[in-house]
Design a protein that fits this description.
Distance between the termini: 33 Å
Strand content: under 5%
Family: Belongs to the Wnt family.
Organism: Etheostoma spectabile
InterPro entries: Wnt
Keywords: Developmental protein, Disulfide bond, Extracellular matrix, Lipoprotein, Secreted, Signal, Wnt signaling pathway
Number of helices: 5
Number of strands: 0
Shape: elongated
Radius of gyration: 15 Å
Helix content: 55-70%
Order of helices and strands: HHHHH
Function: Ligand for members of the frizzled family of seven transmembrane receptors.
Length: about 120
């Protein structure tokens, strides 16, 4: 099963490091009880995996090609240095998560997600 099984925990940890100056934070969105975690966890996992697949696609012919161990290292503080690669892995994973959550919300997969009710099921 490789390091991809750690992906949801890594992305949740990245997303939930909220900036306290904001009124609405990812922390407020994700931490509304165990039911909320279960509701969004599948989408977070799918989104993070789509971000990693895109990373592999973007760097397929480069020396650094978004290797599998990048994910494992980032969850164990091995990738904490501020490098271009770390920034890209975090950004592409976060983009994948937000895209998937937004898409699932607009498709009506979540209750009370704040999407326009007149557009549920339309993409």
């Amino acid at each position: 099963m490789g390091p991809l099984h750690l992906l949801p925990a890594m992305v949740l940890a990245m997303c939930c490091q909220a900036q306290f100056a904001l009124a609405w934070t990812v922390n407020n969105f994700l931490m509304t009880g165990p039911k909320a975690f279960l509701t969004y966890a599948g989408s977070v996992q799918v989104g993070a995996q789509s971000g990693i697949y895109e990373c592999k696609h973007q760097f397929a012919w480069e020396r650094w090609n978004c290797p599998e161990n990048t994910l494992q290292l980032s969850t164990h503080n091995g990738l904490r240095s501020a490098t271009r690669e770390t920034a890209f892995v975090h950004a592409i994973s976060a983009a994948g998560v937000m895209y998937t959550l937004t898409k699932n919300c607009s498709m009506g997969d979540f209750d009370n997600c704040g999407c326009d009710d007149s557009r549920i099921g339309q993409t």
